[in-house]
Amino acid sequence: MQIAYIGMGIMGSAMAGNLAKAGNSVKVWNRTPDRPTINEAVNSGCTKCDTIAETVKDCSIVFTCVSDVEDLHEVLFGSGGVFESALAGSIVVDTATIGPGAAIEFSEKLNERGIKFLDAPVTGGDVGARNGTLTIMVGGNEPDFEAVLPALRSVGKNVQLCGPVGSGQALKLCNQILCAVNMVAVTEALLLAKCFGLDEKMVPEILGTGAGGSWALQNLAPRILKDDFAPGFRIKDMLKDLRLVQENATSDRGNQLELPGTNSARKLFEAAAGEVGMDSGTQAMIKGFAAAKK
Amino acid sequence: MQIAYIGMGIMGSAMAGNLAKAGNSVKVWNRTPDRPTINEAVNSGCTKCDTIAETVKDCSIVFTCVSDVEDLHEVLFGSGGVFESALAGSIVVDTATIGPGAAIEFSEKLNERGIKFLDAPVTGGDVGARNGTLTIMVGGNEPDFEAVLPALRSVGKNVQLCGPVGSGQALKLCNQILCAVNMVAVTEALLLAKCFGLDEKMVPEILGTGAGGSWALQNLAPRILKDDFAPGFRIKDMLKDLRLVQENATSDRGNQLELPGTNSARKLFEAAAGEVGMDSGTQAMIKGFAAAKK
User: Fold this and answer.
1) How many beta carbons lie within 10 A of that of residue A104, not counting itself?
2) Which residue on chain B is closest to A164 by alpha carbon?
3) Is the full-model pTM beyond 0.90?
4) What tens digit of pLDDT does each residue of A158-202 get?
5) What is the end-to-end Cα distance of chain A in Å, rounded?
6) Does residue B284 have a pLDDT over 60?
7) CB–CB of B196 and A258 under 8 A?
């Protein structure tokens, strides 16, 4: 199958590589053409192109994975972008987190030229992208989903159609709330343990498999206790996703959904970024607590 | 071994029963003598007594499991209580959640008469108490811990000495923070899913095993979605524990530890109790959200 992949960051290049390894003919493009991560895709058999038009030419599927809503808008609708160049009938599959509102808006615009759209945000991080074990949450209609399913199965292990366009984004934002607020739980439990003079290692070790357990407690608490704040997932990206929650979480009556836990998480990530920078992993939230700074 | 067990609620009677089944001679007492739960202990071979003095007579270990700090104080230091009646050299093992401050205070008072004290709060609920699979977090000194370890092993699967007196309580409060704030995460994710028009079942089913996963998501979200608010753990007991966090979470400089996530959880549990009552399970937190009431 002829596939285009636009956006050769860590995630995009790993996914493009897996698409090529599965036997597809994959052309790739990145705004910054010499970004080192693109080599992973090229080494796996992808062909690097100079323009979006050249990349999407003759392709029935166009993957995108660019960092934010504005960047995706430029790639899709900017001069020389996908909207101008892609085949009518082709399917754009966006794997980034852009929120359901943008997904629906972009889908409708692409449809005007007969280009179809699926939102397909992923979880599982760089490791999942490399190993092809991502969870992929897809929003769109059934025939489009079926058409891209073989391709998605070569990049993800758990591929789920969640509902119409925007539904994959919606479920992804639910996931980000869980990750953000579970991190608050882990952080406050560790701070309380410290305040009580406990050996903080007992928090993940003794409590990790019980009713207080979580992925964050088992995987990120040990990193916090080793002062390892290298990113699995960056604070910068989490704050972008929590902004998308806020922008999209409006009830059918037009009220903003009240999410006090998510709100606390956002403030704590912002405070932590002020201490240790936006590129730290989300487990650096603990640096955003007043008590942790003293 | 001669063992006394004071406090025949659901947890105490199940633990007393397991102590008797393990071959110990167990005498039990409850403030309200005809409480139905006491039968579970009696049916397992425990002997029901009329007074605390009669219960603790000749016992080297005195377990307590009464509902709050004031009640435990009365049982220990009230007229005819443990302080007056227990053998010098006997060890009081309290399995309730009373906070590290009260544990240390009660321990010191008991020591005046040569009675030793271990705090040994548990997690694992009524099911864990019946099956003898509780996690038991013990605070106290090593020789006292070793002396009661065979007894504790007959009521719990995971028995851990956490540090000096109060340390078991401290770790238990960390656990309660994790449970409370993870519930905020689950609730907000479900509310966001509903706001987006998603099938909410996807939240536990698709996200439960990923980076947003938690015990609460896997075990309590499905109950919320079935409108099943029967207590595993009651809001009333959780609010008591979060009050203990607040009372005990004072740093070495005397500052109150700031715990915004725990604070949100407490307010949401209080709001939920106003809607559905204190005896609902903690998963009823969702009833405390403004958006969920409309």
Assistant:
1) 18
2) B198
3) yes
4) 999 999 999 999 999 999 999 999 999 999 999 999 999 999 999
5) 57
6) yes
7) no
* Contact assessment for residue B94 and residue B72, using Cβ atoms and an 8 Å cutoff: yes
- Minimal C-alpha gap between A111 and chain B (Å): 22
Pairing state between β B156-163 and B134-139: parallel
Ordered alpha helix ranges (H), B46-201: 52-56, 69-77, 82-85, 100-111, 125-131, 142-153, 167-195
Of A176, A189, A215, which has the smallest distance from its Cβ to B174's Cβ?
A189
Whole-angstrom distance, CA of residue B27 vs CA of residue B42? 9
Cβ pair B187, A152 in contact under 8 A: no
Partners of residue B158 on adjacent β-strands: B135
- A162 contacts in chain B (CB < 8 Å): 198-199, 202, 206
Half-sphere exposure of B156 (CA within 13 A, CB side): 23
Phi, psi of A250 (to 5 degrees): -115, 125
Percent of chain B's residues with pLDDT above 70: 97
Quote the CA–CA distance of B45 and A216 in Å, as a whole number. Answer: 43
Q: Which residue segments constitute the domains of chain A, with CATH numbers given?
A: 2-163 (3.40.50.720), 170-293 (1.10.1040.10)
Of A162, A121, A114, nearest to A139 (Cα)? A162
Q: Which of B122, B184, B199 to mutate to test the interface with A (most CBs of A within 10 A)?
A: B184
